[in-house]
Amino acid sequence: MIVELSHRIVEGMVTYPGIPGPRLAMHLSREDSRELYAPGTEFEIGVITLAANTGTYLDTPRHRYAGGADLSQVPLSSLADLPGLVVRAEEETRAGAREVRLDPSLDVRGRAVLVHTGWDRHFGTDAYVSGHPYLAPESAAWLAEQGAALVGIDSLNIDDTPPRGPRPAHSALLAAGIPVVEHLTGLGALPSEGFRFHAAPPMVAGMGTFPVRAYAVVPEES
Length: 222
What we know:
Elements lengths: L1 E3 L18 E6 L1 H4 L11 E5 L7 E3 L1 H4 L17 E7 L1 H5 L4 E2 L11 E5 L17 E2 L1 H10 L3 E4 L14 H8 L4 E3 L10 E6 L10 E3 L3 E3 L5
Helix pairs in contact: 4-5
């Protein structure tokens, strides 16, 4: 079974306050293409202008550090076919907790660790951008020390986002070469473990972030 974990990208959507929404346009319409091909043959070529931090996206070390690996330098082995682990925090966040702390007994080495807060239920609304849950700084440092392969979250940001504030989770994880996926959705449909996670962006040289089609492959029950 394949489980979708990404938000749709649509014209003008707001992912993060202050970042412009995507704009869709046409390079070659079907009507104009009819002049270029044989009768009955037509094509459409679109254009999209979007900020790299749009929808469900991946952060590479280049996002935080000037000398860090960019989208073209992070290996596929860090982005695709990763053994997954879901950390459940929805009950606590529904009760008002914001900082998510991880159980240090978890086996996270080499895994995609996905923090399920349930905050994706607010995506596209004003509630999504205010008071979002985030990963505790010490838990981010612990994930880096333990060698997690990738870390994801289904809320606005893996860090708390006060104005001009620090970003300790980004700093610790990306310094350790661990990619981060933000704005995930649908984590409630996954088992806690036993699935494979995928979130590979295009190989764009010189960029640190880009949208991904994140998904999980869950074995069918026998």
